[in-house]
What we know:
About 35% of the residues lie in helices and about 35% in strands. By secondary structure, it is of the alpha+beta class. It has one domain: 2-Layer Sandwich (Alpha-D-Glucose-1,6-Bisphosphate, Chain A, domain 4). A 7-stranded antiparallel sheet has the order 1-7-6-5-4-3-2. Strand 3 and strand 4 form a beta hairpin.
Amino acid sequence: MKILKNILLVVVVFFALILLVAAFVPTEFAVERNVEIEKPRTEVFEYTKYLKNQEEFSVWARIDPQMERVFTGEDGTVGFVSAWKSDHPEVGVGEQEITGIDGENRIDYQLRFMVPFESTSDAYMTFSSIDSASTTVAWGFSGEMPYPTNLMLLFVDMEGELGGDLQTGLNNLKGILEN
Length: 179
């Protein structure tokens, strides 16, 4: 009986330590990448504002070209939703909605993931003129992992996981627009 109590005590202390550590881990994350495109901002923005065009440059859209897609609303406007469904574990089920457009400067999105896990994250693309013939595009993604699941941020490199995919997507965008 004493051994069982000691084992139980060790288990309780172990979980208490995990919860204590999680209390000091950030709950939010943000990743951003950018690319310079040799095209005027208007041209870059006009192509990029359409969510359907992300199928051409987004890494995630290219993982499963057979995924089911459903579009709701008028593409390139606030409220447009691009939903997807895939059996591929890296794609899953979710939707992306255009939540804001600031002229030719910025597009805000909300991503809602349902499978393989439920979460809501924000994303954006910004467009800055370098000169009349070239544009810097930044693609950012942010989210939150509530306590105590935020402990996963100690083991998952969000910068590495998402940053590479964002940069690849931007490089794909550059290739499409410059060719």
